[in-house]
């Protein structure tokens, strides 16, 4: 019997500390060679409509599993009163091939994307980091704050974004997620204003041009850059990357999709990928986290299907414990 899990089911089974731990497990397994993550495939469905398929295989002795995330992107959906994207994650037992779960993927994607930044922040940010400059106010931005606040309790969040409605929704969602622990959230008039005294930065936009200037990044800052996922996109300027210790989720994926790094390397501002660290090296203890109070660090993530698989697998097992979800015979 397979389990169908809705967004409401996920929210009952998964909190941010558990999601961050799932990411620690995932990136340790990736570093240990227990994960296969083929490059994502894309299929054009119609004009302005695209499907992305992200397969992954987890080969740990405890639970060998195969996952497939399907994301659809339709630019015309907002005019139809629909979200721009939908996502579903399929989880199979890798030994028998049996379907274990069908999981709503939108919320899962947002939480796991936040969680990997939470893990990177735990490993790379200064212990006293407590002011966050947040670029963007969409769905991903909300879980970035949630995760970073879990790793480093925040004194203030300064938001740089253009859409008033997105900002209002960000405030509403963060107060729902964080309750009484929600830090003060203010809207900054400029990137420079947001970065003045900030020791944490989160970039969650679809920008094709850098969001800030290197001169406004203070020594000791940690940056999570999760928005850019094509060679044409870019959130962090080459000068900042040249000053930073660069950590990626996976070199192979970054070399295909991390526009920030690809553009900086093409300009000769940063060294090639052999100088980049992978998050799994830090999570496993092979490489140290932050090395000095003055070090600038940048975690560049393009997202890997195995993050969805490991998170979905955790949710599936937790749902079984709690008796949550709808069982179907597939």
Describe the structure in brief.
With 330 residues, this protein is an alpha/beta fold. It is 36% helix and 25% strand. Strands 1, 2, 3, 4, 5, 6, 7 and 16 form an eight-stranded mixed β-sheet that branches.
Descriptive terms for the model:
25% strand, globular, 16 strands, Rossmann fold, 8-stranded mixed beta sheet, 36% helix, ornithine cyclodeaminase, domain 1, 8-stranded parallel beta sheet, 11 helices, 2 domains, 330 residues, alpha/beta
Plain-language structure description:
- Strands 1, 2, 3, 4, 5, 6, 7 and 16 form an 8-stranded mixed sheet that branches. This protein has an 8-stranded parallel sheet with strand order 10-9-8-11-12-15-13-14.
- The radius of gyration is 19 Å and the shape is globular.
- The protein has 2 domains: 2-108 and 306-328, ornithine cyclodeaminase, domain 1; 116-303, 3-Layer(aba) Sandwich (Rossmann fold).
- It has helices at 7-13, 16-31, 105-124, 139-151, 164-178, 191-195, 238-243, 251-257, 259-266, 279-283, 305-322; strands spanning 2-5, 35-36, 41-46, 49-58, 65-74, 85-93, 99-104, 131-135, 156-160, 185-187, 200-203, 222-225, 244-248, 277-278, 296-300, 326-328.
- With 330 residues, it is of the alpha/beta class.
- The N and C termini lie close together (7 Å).
- A hairpin with a 2-residue loop joins strand 3 and strand 4.
């Amino acid at each position: 019997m397979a389990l169908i899990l809705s967004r409401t089911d996920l929210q009952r089974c998964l909190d941010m500390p558990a999601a961050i731990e799932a990411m620690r497990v995932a990136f340790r397994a990736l570093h240990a060679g227990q994960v296969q993550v083929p490059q994502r495939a894309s299929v054009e469905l119609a004009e302005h409509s695209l499907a992305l398929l992200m397969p992954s295989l987890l080969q740990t002795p405890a639970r060998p599993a195969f996952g497939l995330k399907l994301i659809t992107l339709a630019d015309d959906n907002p005019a139809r009163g629909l979200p721009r994207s939908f996502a579903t994650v399929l989880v199979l037992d890798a030994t028998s091939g049996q379907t274990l779960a069908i999981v709503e993927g939108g919320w899962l994607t947002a939480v796991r994307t936040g969680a990997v930044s939470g893990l990177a922040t735990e490993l790379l940010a200064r212990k006293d980091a407590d002011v966050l400059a947040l670029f963007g106010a969409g769905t991903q931005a909300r879980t970035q704050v949630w995760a970073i606040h879990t790793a480093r309790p925040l004194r203030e969040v300064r938001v740089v974004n253009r859409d008033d409605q997105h900002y209002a929704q960000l405030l509403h969602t963060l107060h729902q997620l964080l309750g009484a622990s929600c830090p003060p959230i203010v809207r900054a008039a400029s990137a420079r204003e947001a970065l003045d005294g900030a020791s944490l930065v989160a970039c969650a936009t679809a920008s094709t041009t850098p969001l800030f200037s290197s001169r406004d990044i203070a020594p000791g800052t940690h940056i999570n850059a999760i928005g850019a996922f094509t060679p044409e996109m870019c959130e962090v300027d080459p000068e900042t990357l040249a000053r930073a210790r660069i950590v990626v989720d996976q070199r192979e994926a970054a070399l295909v999709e991390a526009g920030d790094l690809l553009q900086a390397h093409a300009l000769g501002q940063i060294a090639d990928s052999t100088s980049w660290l992978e998050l799994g090296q830090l999570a496993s203890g092979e490489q140290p986290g932050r090395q000095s109070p003055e070090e600038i660090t940048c975690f560049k993530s393009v997202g890997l299907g195995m993050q969805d698989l490991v998170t979905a697998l955790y949710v599936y097992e937790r749902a079984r414990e709690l008796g949550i979800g709808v069982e179907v015979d597939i």
